[in-house]
Each structure stands twice: as C-alpha cells, then as structure tokens.
Amino acid sequence: MPNLPDVVLWSIPAFVLLAVIEMISVRVHPDEDAAGYEAKDAVTSVGMGLGSLVFDFLWKIPIVAIYTAIYELTPLRVPVLWWTIPLMLLGQDFFYYWSHRGHHVIRILWACHVVHHSSRRFNLTTALRQPWTTLTVWPFYVPLVALGVHPAALAFCSSANLVYQFWIHTERIDRMPRWFEFVFNTPSHHRVHHASQGGYLDRNFGGILIVWDRLFGSFVPEVERPVYGLTKNINTFNPIKVATHEYVAIAKDLKTATSWRERAGRVFRGPGWQPVPVPEQGVPAAEETAAA
C-alpha cells in the first residue's frame, strides 16, 4: 500500500487560519455588494464539515472494501511514482467532473450534494459545508481503480482535489491571470457554480481544472454578481435538517406519487422534475418539465 499523507487533515490548520484572515478582511474592508459572513451560517458550515469527517470515516469501510476487491481483480497496476501522481490527479479530476455534474442532474444524488449549496453566503467557511451522505460518490471512480490505481492513491488524489477547492470559495479574490482562469477553477468560476440565477444554474462543475467544463459545454463566465443559495432556500441552520432536507422532500413526493413512473422520476430525474399533469378530456397533455 502506498504511504501517502491525509491531505485534508494536514490542511485543517491552514483552513482555520485562512478563514480567520478572510473574516478580518471582510470586517476591515467590507464590500457592500458581497454576501459576507453571518455567524449562524458560518457555525453551521463548520459543523457540517466536522460531521462530514465522522460520516466519511464510516462510509469508507464499505467503499474501501469494494475498491479493494476491484483492485485485486484487475490485472492492471499504476505505480505510485513522481510522474504518475500528476496523471492520477488528472484522471481523478476528470471523473470528479462527471460525479459533480451527476450530483446536480439526478435528484437522489442532488439530495447529497445540495448540502454544499444550501448557504446563502459565499466565503471560506462555505467550503466546509460538506454532505454527510457521500456514499453516492464512489461509483464514479470505479474506472480508475479498474485501471490499476490503488485505492489509497485515489483517496490521496480526492483529498488533494478537495483541498484545492477550499480557496476558491471566496469573494475577496476577483480574477486570476487570464491563462490561469482559462485552465484552472478559480473563485470567479466557482461563484457562478454556487449562484442561483437561471443562467448560472448547473454550470462550472470542475474541481481543479475548468477545462472539462469548456470541453463538455457546461462553462459560463462570471458576468453579473451571483445570488447564492438554492432556488428554494431552506431557511434553517439546523445541521440535521441541512443534511437531510432533500431526502425528506423526496420521501414526501414518493408518498403522494400516483404511479411507479412518477416515483422513478421523483428519484432519478432532475431536482425540479414534475410529472405530466393528467389532462382534462379533450385537452392535450402538457410537456414534462425539468428544472435545471
């Protein structure tokens, strides 16, 4: 097993220091148009982050077992060397893009990821607002393990990707140099991703690189100031409600569903999907709707 560090744990002191610096910066040089900080919101985000560490540890038990079984079955092996680690990071970032995109367009996956978008603020503590039900993520990385990437190496790459994304959750940085903005995910790109305006919804899914969005048609530049949060905000700081509210909404929709087709749609279609309304006699049925 490769001996690789836990990047997230090593980065916690830096997370705390940078968040404190940002808080002081906002206090000393406030931007009236920025979302800024709210004490209850920041505490909730930090609480969600601490909770995710506990739940992720629990989810790792079955996930590591599955990855290990796949790794033992495949004849392929990718050695952990100085020149293969960047390639593994590139591969992990590619599959992260599709995992992230999938968690926006499939409702049962969105129920996990919606937690990260539930804050109406956008600051470094927002990066810590992580879901507690990440058991839905592992299938997207099976191809990497099947290609011979050791599960520990995959965990290292995933941690590095997560740590990179911490600094892009800020309004204190406007734009990076043009070449950097073209290749990498930046605060400007990620502000778009967290916005709730129609033109910004479901855009800029990249983790470290923004080139995947440019290649697969999901990139949108920041033009107007984003409005953060959800299209229907939950208005709660209770961590349990933040972590579970979309699962509760799915359960309610399933309870009132009138057909198996509707039940499947409520779970596997987009978050805003609605069934075809039953037409009155002689009136044509309306088209199905699916909010982005």
UniProtKB/TrEMBL annotation:
It is found in: Endomembrane system. The keyword Transmembrane applies. Keywords: Lipid metabolism, Membrane, Oxidoreductase, Transmembrane, Transmembrane helix. Its main location: membrane. It holds the Pfam family FA_hydroxylase. GO terms for molecular function: oxidoreductase activity. Its EC number is 1.-.-.-. InterPro entries: Fatty_acid_hydroxylase (IPR006694), Sterol_desaturase/TMEM195 (IPR051689). It comes from the Bacteria. It is a multi-pass membrane protein. Residues 86-218 form the Fatty acid hydroxylase domain. The chain crosses the membrane at residues 7-26, 46-68, 80-98, 140-168. This is Sterol desaturase family protein. It comes from Streptomyces prunicolor.
